[in-house]
Amino acid sequence: MLIVDRLSKSFQRDGREFAAVDGLSFRVDTGEVYGLLGPNGAGKTTTLRCILGLLDPTSGDVLVDGYRVSEKPQAIKQRIGLVSASAGLYQWLTPREILDYFADVYSVPPDVAEKRIEELSDLLDLKLFLNQRSATLSTGQKQRVNLARALIHDPPVVLMDEPTLGLDVVGSQVVFDYVELLRTQKRAVVVSTHHLDEAGRLCDRFGLLFHGHLRNEGTLDELRQQTGQPGLVEMFVEMLRDRRSSA
After folding, report:
1. Which end of the chain offers a freer environment for a tag, N or C, measured as fewer CB atoms within 10 Å?
2. Can you give the pTM of this predicted structure?
C-alpha cells in the first residue's frame, strides 16, 4: 500500500549539501502499523513530508496505492490522512463545520460526507461536542476531532506524527484505540514518535533511522536479534552513542 523506494532528500546548509534522507526504502502493507523511529535529525520529518508530497525528493520515489508522488502528488494527498500534534483547529468553527470543510477540500460528495461525519462521531465519541466551538474544547476533545479529520476522505494510508504529544493517559488511550481501528479497517499506518513505550504498544514493525539511513528494520524480536539490545530505549541509546563517537 505504501512503498518508499530509495528515497533521498538533500538540502544546502552553510554552503554545503547534506542528505537528510539517503537511499531510504521500506514498505507498509494494508492492516500494518509501522513505527518510523529515530533520534532528532534522523530524517523522520523529511521522510513524512516527502511521502505527503510537500517536499520533492532529490532522488527515489514514494508509491501510495499505486500512485507515484513524482508523477501524481495530488492523487497521493487524496490517499493519505495525517494526524499531527502540531495540527490545530479553526477555533471559531465547530467540529462538524471543520469536518464538512475538509470533506469539501477532498471533494467528498455532501451526502457521503454527512454519513461519514455521523460514523466518525460514533466511533470517536464526538457527538456531545460536535456543534460546540473548537475554542471551548479540551485537548483530548481537539485530538479526537483531528483523528476524525484524518479519515473524512477515507484514505488507505494514515501518517501519525507524535499523535499522543500533550495528551494525558485517557487521551493517549483514545489514540491507541484509534490505531487498532485503523488496523482492523486494513489501512496502512506509519507512526513517528519519541514515546518509545507507546511505539512498542502501537506498532507491528519498526524502522530505525540514523543519519537518514534505515539502520535496522523488523519486529521487536527481530530488532533484538539484530542489535543485541533488549528494548527500543536501549537501541536508541546505542545509536546516540554512535552519533557522538562519529561527531
Report:
1. C
2. 0.91
